[in-house]
Design brief:
- The chain is an alpha+beta fold.
- The protein folds into two domains: 1-101; 105-257, Beta Barrel (Thrombin, subunit H).
- The protein is 36% helix and 29% strand.
- The chain has two helices and twelve strands.
- A hairpin with a 4-residue loop joins strand 4 (144-152) and strand 5.
- Helix 1 packs across helix 2.
- It is rod-shaped.
- The mean pLDDT is 82.
């Protein structure tokens, strides 16, 4: 009511001034009074409009950011899939190339399970009785020897890897021809047990391959490289710690040697073992 009364009073004053010929002065008074108000209202309008425009821009940027994040996530997933497919193709090409080079009958298989005991002790391969797999069949990769089949079941076979404490393989050093036995150890490593002798001794870095004795493994399959020498002094046997040429935790495909193993496979594997 006070505001209404004030507005009516101002209107009456303006009308009185206008009828008396003093409209110009009244207009000046109104301008003096209203100009700051208009200025404030204009600034408030511009600030409000600016805030609203900023909010709309922020909302658009947020939506765009969400969309771009989703696209990046999809691209990363697609990239991982492509990388996995490329890696699988590379492994399969190496396996097929080895299979074509070997003068043996082989059967390709896929690793479908691993037995862990702090380390890999055995691999389960999707080949079994129906594929004519037998016990003691050797399992290899393009890098070298994995181990032997110790159990054959319907549709699957269990492959004992070289690091299993129950595994033993006749072997020798390529450079010195020093014979010995590769044994698995309880801590998931391997060692070569060999007779001490004078002259040319085994050294760190020497490649150890299968000796081909016993008819289980062909001769010349890479087994491991010497990592350290355990010199027992005047003892009859010395030991060499070996680094396996095959990463048993990363094996996905294998070749099972289903034919005769009475061949020397030296030269069919890369020299770096």
């Amino acid at each position: 009511m006070l505001v209404l009364a004030g507005v009516i009073f101002v209107c009456l004053v303006l009308l009185t001034l206008q009828t008396r010929g003093q409209a110009s002065g009244a207009a000046d008074v109104v301008a003096v009074v209203t100009t700051p108000v208009h200025t404030v209202l204009t600034r408030v309008y511009r600030a409000t409009f600016g805030l609203w425009a900023t909010y709309l821009d922020w909302k658009d940027v947020r939506n765009e950011n969400t969309r771009l994040r989703e696209e990046i996530r999809k691209f990363r997933i697609d990239g991982l899939v492509v990388a996995e497919v490329q890696d699988e193709n590379r492994r399969l090409r190496r396996l097929l190339d080895l299979r074509a080079r070997l003068p043996l009958d082989t059967l390709a298989g896929e690793v479908i399970a691993r037995e862990w005991g702090g380390w890999v002790r055995s691999l389960t391969v999707n080949r079994g009785r129906g594929d004519n797999v037998t016990r003691l069949t050797a399992a290899i990769t393009p890098d070298g020897l994995i181990g032997r089949v110790v159990d054959v079941r319907l549709g699957v076979s269990i492959v004992q890897v070289l690091t299993d404490p129950a595994s033993t393989v006749g072997a020798h050093a390529v450079r010195t021809r020093t014979p010995g036995i590769v044994e698995g150890e309880p801590r998931g490593t391997m060692r070569l047990k060999f007779m001490a002798r004078d002259g040319n001794q085994i050294q760190v870095g020497d490649l150890i391959v299968t000796a081909g004795q016993g008819g289980v493994f062909p001769r010349g399959l890479p087994v491991g490289r010497v990592r350290a020498i355990d010199d027992r002094g005047a003892a009859l046997f010395h030991y060499a710690a070996l680094e396996p040429v095959v990463d048993f935790a990363r094996v996905d495909e294998v070749l099972l040697l289903t034919g005769s193993t009475a061949q020397d496979l030296a030269g069919h594997f890369p020299p770096n073992g």
